[in-house]
């Protein structure tokens, strides 16, 4: 006896019908028998089922009997992690971990392991042995060794950077001798769950690591984790619109009603999008999309989660081929695996690691000094003098970047950070001149403080006032001084909140970690409230004022799920410093590496190239006889200015890597004599020649771009007249491209222009505008006083509305002198909705 339920309540039938149409790719009008004519397929109570089948009570009894026999406990799954990684014959995993940790300590601390680090390591090894998780640490180090054997940069991050053992193993890069570690943030006996170590790898070479893991552990014993992708505003509106039978244009307009994470859809916005707000179908579609938000849409591969097993995984979990070739996936997400006690290694991708490695390879190459680059090899490590070029070690080169360089902090303090990891966003660049980092720990704070947690917790302004001497640092109690001293009495990190709870309120490490978890999920579960009385009472017992307890609780609420671990901030700060050092001392090489690591980072290639030019780098255009696929360095016209940067053909839209490889191979055989010679020997297709012509890349063969376009688009005479001399076309005297025509081609094909900018052509018209003051350039805005009314115009290169920004939208404008960061309040954005969402150029008035 069954009602074949599809929904829990009859009121959910309309949503179920829409989901059926989405799944079967049809519309509500065309669904026919795929959707039921009534709302009877809902979950009934026992009494309702008995009444429904009152003529067949035996059916009901049989159903109950079958259901009672369908029993399975997840505890029956016997998962075990591989236990022999890096173990020598006869050695246990605990013994192997101790041996490798000791070896790592000798490498990390040639003068001897500091006593506090030694004590921390012993504490960690004891707990790791007690929990039986040494094999996990060994496997993570094995994965790191795989990468380093291939000279792939990698670095652990997240809570694992709280571990001195992870640092000794070379998994993380945060030195416990310089940091205030809280191991319990990473691993706790009371928590009773597997550890979780995240490791970042170069994003272009992560797949090498993934495939090496499969080969090492066996494809039947390794699989990637799934992630449940849910419907969000845009996707929900788009799919619902299709189910309602809207036209493609209407579907586009419907999905354009929302931007990023916003939820409110007003009648005005519907009307401005060209839809009728009084149309019943439009109103129903908007309501249905709202109901659909948060529903699972499909399974995807997790960004990097890997499950390893000592036995074939299919014995304990379903395993299926992934859409991506060479991968398999378990259709469970990370929370499922945590509940089941499966160990997961996160093999993540980070574009900045790719860029740093490429930049280091450039500056340590044998030809870099000949190009006019500052000396790098002897001063900063890498291969010894006289070594072959392929002896370059990116890990050693990264580790030997000089620490605490005043020039680096000076550049950071004036927000000269375009392209620099983590501190290149609008909000970070606005904070840098106020915080003015002067040492490494300042970078740790900078990474963490411009986050929703500290901002919503009201911690940013008190910290800045104390840092600038406007108010003295105040400690609520001497027992908390060691915890809060480095952040001037203001808790900025998750670890500090945990330590305050332990020292100030008597929490155990496990209880403090539970506090952190409840912080992260308090909006979902509301479990944070139970800590309020406990914290205030615990503080009172130790002589800490109730006022501080209440203030801390409010800050914790603000922290919510957005608080930053200090260990994670410290891991990222290392890359902040490394990328800033490269930018300050090797701008051309750094920009070259950033361009060759795209897509990544916050800024477009156009913004990166403009920034390099402002720093005196000579940037040369894409050229079919000079450029490779990647950007390269060349001798500059002025050797004292450092290397010149030649743009690569990868920037040309419509030109694939295979075509570029053919061009380079033909060019290496012999220089190109003419355009026909290029086309013939590289076997280029017509559309590829057109792409090169529009990009201006044929200038060395056909100097006039219009002539190049004419010849690229000319019909080819093939076959019938092969070998027959044909009279050459008469010179028709084509006029030169006008500046705006050339600019349009530059941006259309390359995405940037080396010699022009759209705003340069609009500037005269802006100067003629009357009204509320002149329109300033991005460079002039830098000299504006705080609070001064200004007007600025530019090309929109970025729109961002974080989920935690209370409706604020961040817009980046670019003009011929630089970039301007604009903060658009929610109501202002709503008042100018269509323009704010879709305009390519904006004129903004503000303060």
TrEMBL record:
Name the source's superkingdom: Bacteria
Q: What is its EC number?
A: 2.7.7.7
- Ranges of residues in domain DNA polymerase III alpha subunit finger: 397-542
Q: Return one Gene Ontology term, BP aspect.
A: DNA replication
Name its cellular compartments.
Cytoplasm
GO CC, sorted alphabetically, is: cytoplasm
The DNA polymerase helix-hairpin-helix motif domain sits at: 616-707
Which reaction does this chain catalyze?
Answer: DNA(n) + a 2'-deoxyribonucleoside 5'-triphosphate = DNA(n+1) + diphosphate
| Record keywords | Cytoplasm, DNA damage, DNA repair, DNA replication, DNA-directed DNA polymerase, Nucleotidyltransferase, Transferase
In the record, what terms sit under GO molecular function?
3'-5' exonuclease activity; DNA-directed DNA polymerase activity
Residue ranges constituting the Bacterial DNA polymerase III alpha subunit NTPase domain according to the UniProt record:
96-349
Indicate the family of this protein: Belongs to the DNA polymerase type-C family. DnaE2 subfamily.
What NCBIfam families does the record tag this protein with?
A: polc (TIGR00594), PRK05672.1 (NF004225)
Which protein are we looking at?
Error-prone DNA polymerase
């Amino acid at each position: 006896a069954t009602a074949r339920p599809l929904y829990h309540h009859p009121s959910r039938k309309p949503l179920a019908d829409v989901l059926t149409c989405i799944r079967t790719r049809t519309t509500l009008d065309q669904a026919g028998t795929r959707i039921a004519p009534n709302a009877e397929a809902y979950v009934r109570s026992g009494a309702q089922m008995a009444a429904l089948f009152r003529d067949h009570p035996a059916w009901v009894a049989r159903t109950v009997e079958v259901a009672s026999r369908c029993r399975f406990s997840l505890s029956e799954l016997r998962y075990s992690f591989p236990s022999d990684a890096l173990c020598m014959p006869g050695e246990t995993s605990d013994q192997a971990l101790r041996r490798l940790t000791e070896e790592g300590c000798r490498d990390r601390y040639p003068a001897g392991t500091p006593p506090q680090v030694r004590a921390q390591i012993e504490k960690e090894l004891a707990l790791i042995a007690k929990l039986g998780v040494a094999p996990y640490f060994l496997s993570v180090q094995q994965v790191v060794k795989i990468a380093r054997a291939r000279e792939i940069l990698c670095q652990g991050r997240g809570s694992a950077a709280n571990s001195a053992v992870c640092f000794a193993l070379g998994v993380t890069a945060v030195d416990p001798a310089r940091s205030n570690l809280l191991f319990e943030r990473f691993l706790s006996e009371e928590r009773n769950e597997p550890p979780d170590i995240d490791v970042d790898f170069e994003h272009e070479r992560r797949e090498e690591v993934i495939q090496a893991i499969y080969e090492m552990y066996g494809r039947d014993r390794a699989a990637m984790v799934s992630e449940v992708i849910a419907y969000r505003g845009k996707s929900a509106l788009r799919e619902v619109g299709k189910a309602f039978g809207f036209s493609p244009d209407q579907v586009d307009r419907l999905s354009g009603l929302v931007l990023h994470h916003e939820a409110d859809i007003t009648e005005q916005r519907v009307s401005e999008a060209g839809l009728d707000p009084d149309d019943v179908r439009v109103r129903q579609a908007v309501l249905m999309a709202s109901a659909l938000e948060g529903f699972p849409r499909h399974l995807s591969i997790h960004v990097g989660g890997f499950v390893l097993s000592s036995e074939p995984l299919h014995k304990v979990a379903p395993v299926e081929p992934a859409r991506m070739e060479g991968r398999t996936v378990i259709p469970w997400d990370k929370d499922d695996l945590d509940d089941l006690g499966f160990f997961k290694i996160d093999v993540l991708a980070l574009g900045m690691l790719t860029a740093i490695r490429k930049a280091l390879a450039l500056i340590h190459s044998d030809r870099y000094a000949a190009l006019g680059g500052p000396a790098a090899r002897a001063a900063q490590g890498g291969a010894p003098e006289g070594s072959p070029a392929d002896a370059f070690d990116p890990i050693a080169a990264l580790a030997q970047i000089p620490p605490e360089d005043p020039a680096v902090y000076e550049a950071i303090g004036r927000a000269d950070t375009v392209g620099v990891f983590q501190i290149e966003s609008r909000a970070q660049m606005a904070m840098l001149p106020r915080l003015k980092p002067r040492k490494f720990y300042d970078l740790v704070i900078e990474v963490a403080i411009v986050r929703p947690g500290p901002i919503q917790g009201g911690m940013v302004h008190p910290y800045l006032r104390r840092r600038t001497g406007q108010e003295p640092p105040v400690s609520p109690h001497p027992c908390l001084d060691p915890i809060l001293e480095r952040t001037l009495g203001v808790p900025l990190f998750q670890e500090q909140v945990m330590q305050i709870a332990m020292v100030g309120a008597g929490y155990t490490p496990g209880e403090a970690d539970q506090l952190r978890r409840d912080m992260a999920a308090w909006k979902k579960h509301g479990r944070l409230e139970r800590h309020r009385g406990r914290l205030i009472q615990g503080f009172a017992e130790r002589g800490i004022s109730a006022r501080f307890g209440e203030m801390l609780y409010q800050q914790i609420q603000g922290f919510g799920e957005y608080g930053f671990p200090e260990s994670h901030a410290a891991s990222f700060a290392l890359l902040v410093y490394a990328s800033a050092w490269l930018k300050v001392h090797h701008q051309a090489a750094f920009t070259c590496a950033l361009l060759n690591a795209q897509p990544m980072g916050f800024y477009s290639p156009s913004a990166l190239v403009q920034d390099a030019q402002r720093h005196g780098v000579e940037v040369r255009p894409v050229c079919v006889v000079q450029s490779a696929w990647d950007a390269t360095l060349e001798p500059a016209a002025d050797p004292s200015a450092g290397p010149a940067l030649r743009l690569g053909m990868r920037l040309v839209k419509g030109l694939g890597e295979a075509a570029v490889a053919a061009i380079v191979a033909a060019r290496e055989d012999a220089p190109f004599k003419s355009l026909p010679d290029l086309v013939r020997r590289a076997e280029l297709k017509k559309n590829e020649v057109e792409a090169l012509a529009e990009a201006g890349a044929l200038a060395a063969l056909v100097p006039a771009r219009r002539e190049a376009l004419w010849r690229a688009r000319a019909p080819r005479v093939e076959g019938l007249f092969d070998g027959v001399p044909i009279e050459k076309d008469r010179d028709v005297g084509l006029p030169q491209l006008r500046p705006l025509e050339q600019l349009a081609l530059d941006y259309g094909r390359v995405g940037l222009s080396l010699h022009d900018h759209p705003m340069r052509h609009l500037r005269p018209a802006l100067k003629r505008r009357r009204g509320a003051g002149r329109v300033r350039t991005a460079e002039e805005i830098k000299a504006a006083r705080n609070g001064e009314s200004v007007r600025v115009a530019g090309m929109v290169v970025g729109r961002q509305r974080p989920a935690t920004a209370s409706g604020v939208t961040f817009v980046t404008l670019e003009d011929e002198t630089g970039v301007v960061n604009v903060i658009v309040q929610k109501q202002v954005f709503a008042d100018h909705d269509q323009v704010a969402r879709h305009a390519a150029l904006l004129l903004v008035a503000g303060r």
